[in-house]
Specification:
192 residues; 46% helix; alpha/beta; 10 helices
Length: 192
């Protein structure tokens, strides 16, 4: 007896997050918990500080038939010509692939967090400047494991519809501004 063709349901590709550090890793870990989004979040795919490593990890995800969401800061590539060229090369390689989503933020992911509270795309000198501003709203914010592993700070970011507000704000600022975040693209992918 032969089986019917076309009756088997296609599996959705696995979404895998690739990120720079523990801030991104814990943020998305808490987001997944709060919203029950389906994506892979493994320590192996975090701690990527070089664009070469990110490229290698993207390739691994694509070889497995998955979707790679790359979360990283672009402050260094805006200051350093060599890093800027590497980032441009990465974009040329993957921009036309729907299975690779770049969710970069300038200067850093903390700017994305700030959008939950303030409508701004002003110039921030560096990530530390954004962190100081963010502490106005999340008083004890620190990029330490002991702070980040506690979900309360992400719960605050998501309370009172602030996540939706941040998503709208991020969509309205493009990459030509003094500050921007493409983190909203990850949420668009999660919600498909």
């Amino acid at each position: 007896m032969s089986r019917k063709l076309g009756t088997r349901k296609q599996n959705k590709p696995i979404i895998t997050l690739i990120g720079e550090g523990i801030t991104e890793q814990y943020y998305f870990k808490h987001i997944r918990l709060f919203y029950d989004y389906q994506f892979s979040l493994k320590p192996y795919f975090f701690g990527t500080t070089s664009l070469v490593d990110m490229d290698r990890k993207i390739s691994e995800v694509l070889e497995g038939g998955g979707i790679a969401i790359c979360v990283f800061d672009t402050d260094v590539s805006h200051r350093d010509e060599t890093e800027s060229k590497k980032l441009q090369s990465l974009h040329r390689k993957y921009d036309k692939r729907k299975s690779v989503i770049f969710c970069d933020s300038l200067p850093s992911i903390e700017y994305w967090f700030l959008l939950h509270f303030v409508l701004t795309n002003r110039h921030f000198k560096d990530a530390k400047t954004v962190e100081r501003e963010l502490r106005t709203y999340i008083q004890n914010f620190k990029k330490t494991k002991s702070f980040l592993e506690n979900e309360n700070w992400v719960e605050l970011l998501c309370s009172n519809n602030k996540l939706e507000v941040a998503l709208d704000r991020a969509r309205n600022f493009d990459e030509s501004g003094a500050s921007y975040s493409n983190i909203y693209k990850a949420f668009d992918c999660f919600r498909e």
